[in-house]
Structure formats: structure tokens, C-alpha cells
Amino acid sequence: MAEERATTKHVIKIDQELLENIEYLIEINADNSLLNILVDIHPADIAELLNHLPTDKSIHLFHLLDSETASDLILDLDETLREKVLESSETERITDIVDEMEIDDATDIIADLPDEIAEQVLDNIDSEDSQEVKELLKYPEDTAGGIMSTNFIYVLDDQTVDDAINVVRKHSDDFDHIYHIYVLDRNDKLIGIVFLKTLIIYSRFKKISEVLEKDLIYVHPEVDQEEVARTMTKYDLVAIPVVDSEMKMLGRITFDDVVDVIQEEAVEDLSRIAGLNEEEETSDTILDSTKNRLPWLFVSLFGELISAFVLLSYQASIEKMIVASFFIPIVMALGGSSGTQAAIITVRSISLGDLWPSHTTKKLIKEFKIANINGFFLGSVLLISTFSLFKTEFSFSLLIAFTLLIILNFATIVGAAIPIVLHKMKVDPAIATGPFVTTMNDIFGLLIYLGMVTFFLM
Fold this sequence. Notes:
By secondary structure, the protein is mainly alpha-helical. The protein has 25 helices and 5 strands.
């Protein structure tokens, strides 16, 4: 049903003119005109429209939608807006929306509801669906069990190809996409899969046990969702079964769910790189955002105060080497950038599962070589620039260039090593690319720069 609607809806571009027209129609209460506009728009585009409107107008527009359309787009709404939309909805309205959703999507919505309302919704939807939702709610939301769907098509291994075809026909309206059929034994244990192509090329009377594929890739329900995404990406899977320790089939995860996971993890890592947490995305107030950001800024302030103390310690040297102080921002900026680059690349390798413990030394050696090559070219440019543009002595220009090379090496190794260390300590390495790495590079970069300049010139 969802696939059919997707082909008949218009895909539109959400721009400022459309937003202004929609806002005007809401202000004059032209609900019929609004519905005439929305009826031909794809639910995903309506969700984008709602995400860009003022909150009160988005809520008004959402309540004009029928339950089927609302169920198609509610998970595409920004988390803060979705929360407010649900708060403004009657329990009966929420029940109607949940009733239209796939089990795994319905679970996501019910998990966000207050306990009292969630219980009412569960009591009023189909009893079988309600039981499945309750089962899924037992799993943490960021695990395979939390993102799987308990709906899947299966046949028994002692049935025939003809039986399998009939099963597909019977359930064709229940699934937007059918990739393959799972094969279970009489104890509900997963023993293989049958591709749809197989059902076409083999005789209808052939036993499923004779045509099934036994090479299975599966996950357990407690596996982290990020690991599920890596597994499906690695093996180019469109769906992956979820089984318990006894290989009993619990559900399946499809690639559309994994795309959502990849997006969530990317946003989470970017937030942590900036020294933020996930509450920043869901926060709607200046005070909440300030609370999330301020602690990390204090970390930076503390680190920079140490950097200032380092500068103060070299006050006498700086006064005598006023020219050398001109190049502090250049050296520090390049060192910080190099360290951050190395840290981000390392975090990415760790998150994708590409960096094995046995490859740690090899990774650090590679970063060291890269730092030397980058340092050579950047140092050469700095040497030529200081000598020709600032008219410094050649020996001083050579010293500045050599110092930059050392700082780049230090910053790069630190940037690559810290995520590895944190990962071994079972700490999310994404936090390493925030103020922590930058502050360390500032402190030790200054020490290296001023120490070497002082040693050679004083």
C-alpha cells in the first residue's frame, strides 16, 4: 500500500514561497485549501514542510492529516516536533496512527509516550500487534532487538516450492518489499533462506529443504545497532535475520532501518566531535542548549589558560624574539588541524570496524609518515615565506620550518592515538576529536615551539 502511494504522490521542492503560502492559509483557517494542497504531496515532503514551519502551525497542519498519512510521516518529523505533536494529540488519535504503522515503527512511537498513554494505546490496538510491541519494548532501542520487525515471511523445511509461493501470495499485501523467505524447522529454528528467484526456476513439487541456502548471516538481539549496520553494509544485505542463542527466529532488520541507524550514528558522532551531546538536537530552549555546550567550553577555557601560562613562562624570551611570536598562530593552527584530521580519520576507522587491535601500530606509523610528508611541504612553504616576505635570517626561517614539522608529527600522533586509547578503555572515541585533542595540541604545541625557539636563539 505504501509503495503504491509513493508512486502517485508528487515530489516537490520545499522553498520559502511554499512555506509562506502554507502559513497564510493556516492563519486564515483555510483548512480545505490546505488539504487540497497536501493530498498530492508525498508524506516525506509533508514531513519536511512541517519541520520548517513554526511549531504551532506544524501541529495545526499535522492534525488535518488522516491517520494513514500521519503514520507515514511521523517518524520523519524532528524529534522535538514529534514530541509536541504527540503531546497535543488525543489518545484515540495516537492509537489510530499507531494502528497504521509497521510493528517496529509503532514500537518507536509507543516507547516515547508517557507510560499511562502508552498503556492505553497498547490496550486499544490489535491484541496480536500489542503483544509484539510489548516484546520489542523489552530490548534497548539502540540494539538489533530494538530496531527489528517481528513480521517476516517463512516456510517450513518440509514444505514444497508450491507452498512457499502460496505463502508469498497470502502475505503480499502485508509487506511493501519481499526479498526472500526464511526457512524454519518445526522448532522455529532458522535453518536457511529461499530467494524468490528459486521459486520460479524450480519445480513446484520440489522440497524446500532441497533448494534452500544454508549459508546464513544473522545477528543476536543484544548486538548494537551500529554493528548491525556494519554487518549489512559489509555483506551487501537488504535484510538480516535476528535469532536467539538457540537460533530461533525472532525477527528481521531491513536496509531502510539500517539507513536510519547510519544517519543517527553520523549525527551523534558529529555532535560529539563538537563537544555536544544528543540532548542538543532535541532541545528547544536557549537555556538547555547553553547547558549542553558550556561544560565543554569550560574544558577549552581551562586548557587555554594553561596555554596562557606557558606563554607567560616564556615572557622574557618572547620580548627578545618578537618576530618569533608572529608565527605562533600559524604553527598552532596547522598543528591543531593536523591533529583533528588524524583523530577524525581514526574515529571513522574504529566506527566502521576497519581498525583492528593488531593494526594499531601500523596505523600510527602510517600517520607518522603522513605527518612527515605534510610537514615537509608545509615547512618548505613556511621557510620560503618567512625568508622572502618577512626578511628573516635563513637560519631562523629554517628553525621555524623544522619546529612546524615536529609539531605536526606530535599533533598527528596524538590525534590518532587518543581515539585508539579511549576505544580500548570502552569509551566512545568520538569525544576525542572535540576540545580534548585541540587543547592538548595547543598546550604541547606551544611548549615545543617556544622551547625550541628559546633553546636555539637564546
